[in-house]
Design goal:
This protein is mainly alpha-helical and 229 residues long. Helices cover 69% and strands 4% of the residues. The protein has two domains: 63 residues, Winged helix-like DNA-binding domain superfamily/Winged helix DNA-binding domain (Arc Repressor Mutant, subunit A); 146 residues, Four Helix Bundle (Hemerythrin (Met), subunit A) (Up-down Bundle), CATH 1.20.120.530. Helix 4 runs antiparallel to helix 9.
């Protein structure tokens, strides 16, 4: 009888996954700006690895939409159009609304408490005038919201959208005259989840998306203001 081969757990992430993670982080932080070219040989040299895992990492990020391969030119960090930005926020909001629905049906009070801790981190960063830390706390809020739903598929889809959101947040710097508004929006979402108010949570997530789009694309998103809560 032929012996059946099976996949076995590995001790750690593969080199391509680790490289992709580093590049993804640099893109999200704005170290690698939209339109920047990635050169396999240069990256391999800096990481002291062969070009094979770098090539695979780049392929992964290209599949995620964070990189764009241009024939006979090379690979570049994606540049988002206005349509792309709207699609990113609408897709992310759809996932977060699905996750919020799960939380409200499970343990909304505990979820609300954990999300309010994220809001507290945002407030600390705002008080300190640390815009970069505040943006990371902003991302952590949304990441926590989805991770609490314990859905690997929602988290997987949300992960790529969060990197794209980081790229958009780099454009949002300076768009808030008072960062307290940003904190208040997140607190309102967390409190609605804590209180188990499904319709209010959905409305506030929509309003949060509308506000971000209004600040990023004021001439496109102006009509969305009517849905704000």
């Amino acid at each position: 009888m032929k012996r059946r081969e099976e996949l076995r757990p590995i001790a750690q992430e593969s080199a391509p996954a680790l490289i992709a993670g580093q590049l993804r982080s640099l893109i999200g932080q704005g170290v690698l700006l939209p339109g920047a070219q990635l050169v396999e040989m240069e990256i391999a040299g800096k990481l002291r690895v062969s070009r094979g895992p770098v090539r695979e990492a780049i392929q992964r990020l290209t599949q995620e939409g964070l990189l764009v391969s241009v024939r006979n030119r090379g690979v570049f960090v994606a540049e988002f159009t206005e349509v792309d930005i709207q699609d990113i926020y609408r897709s992310r909001t759809a996932i977060e609304k699905a996750a919020a629905g799960v939380l409200i049906g499970a343990d909304p009070e505990q979820a609300g408490r954990e999300l309010l801790e994220c809001v507290g981190a945002m407030e600390e960063a705002r008080t300190a005038g640390d815009t970069e830390t505040m943006s990371e706390a902003d991302i952590a809020f949304h990441e926590t919201l989805v991770s609490l739903a314990s859905s690997p598929r929602l988290s997987r889809m949300h992960g790529t959208l969060l990197t794209e959101t980081r790229m958009c947040l780099n454009r949002l710097e300076g768009r808030y005259a008072d960062e307290a508004v940003r904190v208040a929006e997140h607190r309102a979402i967390a409190e609605a989840i804590r209180d188990g108010d499904h319709s209010l949570v959905m409305a506030r997530l929509d309003a949060h998306m509308d506000d971000a789009l209004y600040r990023l694309l004021p001439h496109v998103a102006a009509t969305a203001a009517g849905r704000r809560v």
